[in-house]
């Protein structure tokens, strides 16, 4: 399995492409604007087809390229129902952002919940619900590889903003402590923006959320 970190879109949101050439399959985690043009050559180079698109949450910078990805590859789309309105009626987001963002609805095939398991590329991913940045933020935990894709819940030395509709610092703090800080310290966290970090690093030095 190979992992590609691909920043894309107006604010360089991280998308994560996981490919397995032996299986001929790939999954994409999040779809910032223009992501298809960036991943299509890599899919071809690795000799794989995109089988799934997993959305960590419904904010525009993680979904702007999703409709194009669906048209081009018809992947199985996964998201959390608490962000259903943002994903299916993205004009809501344009309303509170105060600008036209060129968003299109993304058809979701599977609404997942806390504790669900997803099988892809021959391995299992655990879904954990980490609201607070927005209601439907989820993370995908690949325990076999010591990796977790956390959306905008936590960053290296920071946390997701909570001033947009549906955000709550109290909820986010609880989510991070219960769902992220309970993972092994060596687990690598891949956030929606910026560089990767580890659970141990954030427990020790994140100034916004300290372990209980």
Q: Could you name the key traits of this structure?
A:
single chain; 6-stranded mixed β-sheet; 212 residues; globular; 14 strands; alpha/beta; Metallo-beta-lactamase, Chain A; 7 helices
Major sheet attributes: 6 strands, mixed
The termini sit apart by 36 Å
Helical segment tally? 7
Average pLDDT taken over every residue: 95
At CATH level 2, the architecture is 4-Layer Sandwich
Total number of distinct structural domains? 1
| Category by helix and strand content | alpha/beta
Order of helices and strands: EEEHEHHEHHEEEEEEEHEEH
> How many strand segments?
14
Strand content: 25-35%
Helix content: 25-40%
Q: For this structure, what is the CATH homologous superfamily? A: Ribonuclease Z/Hydroxyacylglutathione hydrolase-like
- Which stretches are poorly predicted, pLDDT < 50 over at least 5 residues? none
CATH level 1 name: Alpha Beta
Principal-axis shape equals: globular
Regarding quaternary structure, what we see is single chain
Q: And the CATH topology?
A: Metallo-beta-lactamase, Chain A
Strand order of the largest sheet: 1-2-3-4-5-6
Radius of gyration: 16 Å
């Amino acid at each position: 399995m190979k992992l590609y970190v691909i920043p894309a879109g107006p604010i360089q949101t991280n998308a994560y492409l996981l490919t397995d050439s032996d299986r001929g399959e790939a999954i994409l985690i999040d779809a910032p604007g223009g992501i298809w043009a960036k991943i299509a050559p890599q899919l071809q180079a690795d000799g794989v087809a995109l089988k799934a698109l997993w959305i960590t949450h419904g904010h525009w910078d993680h979904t702007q390229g999703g409709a194009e990805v669906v048209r081009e590859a018809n992947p199985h789309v996964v998201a959390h129902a608490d962000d259903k309105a943002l994903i299916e009626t993205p004009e809501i987001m344009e309303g509170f952002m105060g600008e036209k963002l060129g968003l299109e609805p993304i058809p979701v095939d599977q609404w997942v919940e806390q504790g669900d398991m997803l099988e892809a590329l021959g391995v299992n991913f655990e879904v954990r619900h980490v609201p607070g940045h927005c209601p439907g933020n989820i993370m995908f935990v690949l325990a076999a590889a010591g990796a977790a894709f956390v959306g905008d819940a936590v960053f290296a030395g920071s946390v997701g903003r909570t001033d947009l509709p549906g955000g709550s610092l109290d909820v986010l703090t609880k989510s991070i402590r219960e769902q992220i800080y309970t993972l092994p310290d060596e687990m690598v966290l891949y956030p929606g923006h910026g560089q990767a970090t580890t659970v141990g690093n954030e427990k020790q030095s994140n100034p916004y959320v300290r372990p209980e």
